[in-house]
Design goal:
Pfam families: AAA (PF00004). The chain has helices at 17-36, 50-61, 135-155, 187-200, 206-210, 229-239, 255-268, 286-294, 336-345, 354-363, 369-386, 391-407, and strands spanning 41-45, 67-72, 80-85, 92-97, 102-106, 111-120, 123-132, 156-163, 166-173, 217-222, 244-248, 271-276, 302-308, 327-330. It is of the alpha/beta class. It has 3 domains: 10-133, no CATH class; 171-330, 3-Layer(aba) Sandwich (Rossmann fold); 336-407. Strands 9-8-11-12-13-10-14 form a 7-stranded mixed β-sheet, sandwiched between helices. A 5-stranded antiparallel β-sheet has the order 1-7-6-5-2, with helices on both faces. The protein has a two-stranded antiparallel ribbon with strand order 3-4.
């Protein structure tokens, strides 16, 4: 199959930048017309419509028979790629058709996709283009997209991460479901949160219509790390009959990525949007984020969940103004009752006697769930290697290490570091 850009044509090698993009797009349009005897137009160039590309890529991976390969863009470059599939009993490599440098079309729908490789200075970038035979064809295709993506998102978690090159997204299959009973939390708080969620995602929305309450909610989960905030968020994503998106705030979060995430949430609503480490929001975009939350339609149909390990660093405006985060729930260090529940669910009895288990519950005051898990791993390792467990030494060591991490004093008097 002849490529759009061939080395036989010397003019193809002389253009760069925007003129090169224009030349390639024209070549794609000509190829689509000659292949299907229909005139196509460009509808988007590098606009952020992740849902279009997510489902197109899924169809490409699954060899959807409605999707046809039209042409390679640059001769001698990639036609195929490969991935490592870690799911299933036997992880394997899979060869697939390459997304970049190729033109694909849904012939019956009159829609085509292309990722065009362009040199930007010393960097190779991909320009994403979507083509259609008419506005009506584009509208009909988009109508099918929302329903498919909503169903897809119910079985997968949509992950957004802000990186140096902008907002990245991926779908992660829900392989290990976190059930509601797996969440260790004070009963009254746990019950209140789940009742709120179930009410929000009722199909008839009768509660909100009866009491004329805006169809949007926001809760903030705060407290020291390792005490179940993320576990609760995963359980919500896995057990509520609605799509869920997880957004990791980083130093690269920008006003552009904030706008993109909320535009996505609006298109998929009703949806759960989990914002992890909200205290990490860069100072330069906090005002934009707050203004986005205040927008009249920015949260319509969105159940917003924010998490933070450092509530003291949260902008007071997030909690002190209605319509942003409506409620805050503290995830404190587990009390004795919750520690006992965790110890029994973790099956400490495989390693320890009943007396030792009672000692774990009593002497682990101040431990988070994550630290209790580490204690279990340490006990298992010692039992496996030595055939016995020195429980009190392990607890003492963990308390000493935790104290050092809080004070920042890692050096011992004998000159050794705290971990040895």
């Amino acid at each position: 199959m002849e490529s759009i850009i061939s080395f036989k044509n010397e003019n193809n090698q002389s253009a760069s930048g925007y003129p090169a993009l224009s030349m390639i797009v024209k070549g794609i349009l000509d190829r689509l017309e000659s292949t299907y005897n229909e005139t196509y137009e460009v509808f988007t160039i590098n606009e952020y419509h992740f849902e279009l590309w997510s489902l197109f890529e899924e169809d490409l991976m699954t060899n959807n028979d409605q999707l046809e390969h039209v042409a390679m863009i640059v001769e001698k470059m990639e036609r195929y790629s490969f991935t490592y599939d870690a799911e299933g009993d036997e992880p394997i490599y899979k060869v697939k058709q390459a997304l970049s440098n190729n033109v694909y079309a849904y012939r019956e729908q009159g829609i085509a996709f292309a990722q065009i490789p362009i040199m930007d200075g010393a960097h190779l970038t991909n320009v994403e283009c979507v083509f259609a035979t008419s506005s009506l064809a584009m509208e009909r295709f988009l109508e099918t997209i929302k329903g498919r993506l909503w169903q897809k998102s119910r079985n997968e978690l949509l992950i957004f991460t802000d990186g140096m090159d902008g907002l990245n997204h991926e779908h992660q299959p829900i392989t290990k479901r976190v059930k509601r009973e797996d969440v260790l939390l004070k009963h009254e708080i746990k019950e209140e949160i789940y009742q709120m969620l179930d009410c929000f995602f009722e199909e008839d929305r009768s509660f909100f219509e009866t009491y004329q309450i805006p169809y949007k909610r926001g809760i903030l989960l705060y407290g020291p790390p390792g005490n179940g905030k993320t576990t609760l968020a995963k359980s919500i994503a896995h057990t509520v009959d609605a799509p869920a998106a997880y957004w990791q705030i980083t130093e690269f979060t920008s006003s552009e990525s904030i706008a993109q995430v909320f535009q996505m949430a609006n298109r998929l609503a009703p949806i759960i949007l989990i914002i992890e480490d909200i205290d990490s929001m860069p100072d330069g975009v906090r005002s934009y984020f707050l203004n986005t939350l205040d927008g009249a339609t920015s949260k319509e149909g969105i159940f917003l969940i924010g998490t933070t390990n450092y509530p003291e660093e949260i902008d007071p405006g997030l909690m002190n103004r209605a319509g942003r985060f409506d409620r805050g729930y503290e995830f404190a260090l587990p009390d004795e009752s919750l520690r006992e529940q965790y110890v029994h669910e973790k099956k400490f009895d495989k390693l320890l006697s009943s007396e030792e288990i009672a000692a774990v519950i009593k002497h682990s005051e101040g431990f988070s769930f994550a630290q209790l898990n580490e204690l279990f791993v340490s006990c298992a390792l010692e039992s496996h290697q030595k055939g016995t467990v020195d429980l009190y030494r392990l607890i003492k060591r963990m308390k000493e290490d935790h104290k050092k991490s809080k004070t920042g004093k890692w050096q011992e008097e004998d000159g050794q570091l705290g971990f040895y």
